[in-house]
Amino acid sequence: MHFLTVQNVNHTYFTAKQATKALENISFQMEEGEFVSLLGPSGCGKTTLLSILAGLLQPTAGIVQIDGKLPGSRQSSIGYMLQQDYLFPWKTIEENIMIGLKLEKRLNPESRKHALGLLQTIGLAGTEKQYPRQLSGGMRQRAALVRTLAVDPKILLLDEPFSALDFQTKLKLEDLVFDTLKQFHKTAVLVTHDIGEAIAMSDRILLLASKPGRLYKIFDVPTELRRLRPFEARSQKIYSELFNDIWKELESLENS
Predict the structure, then answer these.
(1) Cβ 216 vs Cβ 44: under 8 Å
(2) Which structural domains are found in the chain, ordered by start?
(3) Average pLDDT for the chain
């Protein structure tokens, strides 16, 4: 059985005056520990699909299962990371990273120790008693990642988590997230507009077409790139070749 199954998913947004089909017949599978990126032109339904995977939206038709469970059930255990860090400014970093554990009634000495260990692993040791305003944007996103990982989710859904950062910080955080997910063998789905980011971080890239959103093409990232950290992967010749291939496909979609 596949870890994630998306089968014939359709979604339509209804208003009083019209119905707009956002997704049409989306099907794909993922294995545990795999990293997949959703790429495509604006309006192709990437965020809608991510919201369905998170259980925030129910698809109009089709089936989604995560480790045999429906999204949104307590057993499905999903972590969601957004463009903004959404740390509570009046709480310390330690208090912020414990929020998910508190909400799930799983905060205990062992889970607290694990969360603080993650903070150290991700390079934020010594920030426990600081407030978000005292940290840089990249450090706040790292704290948001710790908060997401602290509840030990089975799958991480990443909605353009680096897009608000400067380019240098973005590249560093790509490596950090990549290393962390590999270390903890996490399954992840990334929504991005950045072709380079998708190639550097992913095992596979799902290219979506728009109006309505549908799966257009799947790109398998070559093994020699997948073995490298994102920053190193960007300097490889095969990275540039794949970038050009995806760029041409994306341009044809946007011009069609």
Answers:
(1) no
(2) 1-77+189-256 (3.40.50.300)
(3) 91
